[in-house]
Structure formats: structure tokens, C-alpha cells
Amino acid sequence: MRITDPVDGWLQVTACSPFPDAAGEMVLYPKCDIDGVITAERLAATAVRYSGYDVPKPKWPRPGMTLPVTVDLAAPSRFRIEWDLVPTEPEAAERLAAHLRREPTGAEQTDTPGRHPFPRTWREVEHAAPSPALVNGLTPQQTEIALSGGAAALGLVPATAMVLAAHEVQPSSAPGGTWNIAVRVNDPNGGPGWEAVTRMSFSSSSRRESRAAPGSELPVLVDPDNHKRIIVDVTRWS
């Protein structure tokens, strides 16, 4: 496959073939089918499907994983999964343990410039929690997809919400702190609104005071069918 305008991107796996030996039957050359969403700079989130026999068994993906890819900016359906950059489960565990100890492993130290095993994009809405648990009803990868133009693929639609109150969350590494913001959401479909809580980190206390003061209106992305899924849409802030 020829990629004429390559850019670094990420494939968020939404569905994947089961591991080939899961039933106790050894498969020498397993075929892997992956459904997912690709995101990259200057590229709208794109739903894609991958099918091939080149997936290393120790790196067999599962739903929720994020895989590094090289994608054709001119045609996002043309992409290549960079399997050499995907850690095996033991390697991933070692990297996580080293990160928590703040001791970079040799593999992390020798990463190719500009390429990393996981996204490191800073966004004002990101929080400092190291846990992969859902925040705002979304995983960190889903949040990145939503704010990169793929909200519709996740069932999120634009709406507005009025701030009711804000309470700081401790600890937080964000300069302006991390806050749980209680809001009243205006139903994007014209129905009755609802109350929800969204978590957000701020780059400064002045930004938090101007944007999370009671009565302020926030642009948000919401799931009309699941009121716990809501994030502030910083891309719509002027």
C-alpha cells in the first residue's frame, strides 16, 4: 500500500477478532480484523477497518487499545499500523511501573523523535488522574477522539450548559487545578434539560474563574441517551 502524504496518527480499536488461541486451538497464521477510528493532526476522525495476517501474537489488540499508525493525509483509509512501536503486555506493564516510579526505561529513552507509544497531546480539559477509569463517562482515548472531530462517532452531540457550581479535586498537577463542575445542560433535541457533572483541568486560576463561575455558559459535547457522558468542548471556545 502506497502512502503518498504520511502523517503520524492513532487507531482507537473499537472491535477486534478474538485472540487466535483463545479456544485452545493453535493457529499458525491468524487473520486479524480490526474496526476502529483513526485520528491525526489536520485530519478529522475517520472510521476504518483493518484486515491482515501480519499482527504479532504477543501484540494482539483488544477493544479500547490505541495503536500508532502512519496514515495518508490525502486518503485516511490508507494507513499502516506500526507494530514495532506497540509494546507487548509485559513491556507495557514495565513501562507503566517505570513511569509511576518516574524512571524511564531504555525503550522510552530511545523512542524515535515525534513517535511515542501513546498520545501525549496536552488539552486544557485533561485531568491529572493516572487511572484509566472513565472520567466524564469517557476513556482518555475517547476524549481525544471527541475533541479531534470524532464526537459523532462516539454518540456525542454539541450543546450548551450553564454552570451551577464548581468544586476543586485534589490532588491536581494543573496550574489552575482540576474541578468538578455541576452544570445544567440544555437538551440539544429541544427536550427538558438535565443536571450533570463534568471534570476539567485549567491552565490558570484566572481561566477557571472566568469560565467556571456560576451562571457561565459552557460549550459541551453530550450523549442525549446517557447523561453521564459530557465533556467541555474547548474547540468551540473563542
Descriptive keywords:
238 residues; alpha+beta; 5-stranded antiparallel beta sheet
Q: What overall geometry do the principal axes of the alpha carbons give? A: elongated
Instruction: Please bin the fraction of helical residues.
Output: 10-25%
User: What is the count of β-strands?
Assistant: 10
Sheet with most strands: strand arrangement: 3-2-1-4-5
> Average pLDDT, to the nearest integer?
78
Strand percentage, roughly? 35-45%
Outline the biggest β-sheet. 5 strands, antiparallel
Rg from C-alpha positions?
Answer: 20 Å
Q: Which runs of at least 5 residues are low in confidence (pLDDT < 50)? A: 103-133
Q: Work out the helix count.
A: 4
Please state the oligomeric state of the protein chains shown: single chain
Topology overview:
Layout lengths: L5 E11 L15 E9 L2 E10 L13 E7 L6 E3 L7 H13 L4 H4 L30 H11 L6 E13 L8 E9 L7 E8 L3 H7 L5 E7 L2 E7 L6
Antiparallel strand pairs: 1-2, 1-4, 2-3, 4-5, 6-7, 6-9, 7-8, 9-10
Provide a descriptive summary of the structure in words.
The chain is an alpha+beta fold. It has helices at 89-101, 106-109, 140-150, 205-211; strands at residues 6-16, 32-40, 43-52, 66-72, 79-81, 157-169, 178-186, 194-201, 217-223, 226-232. A five-stranded antiparallel beta sheet has the order 3-2-1-4-5. It has a five-stranded antiparallel beta sheet with strand order 8-7-6-9-10, with no helix packed on it. Strand 4 and strand 5 form a beta hairpin. The chain is elongated.
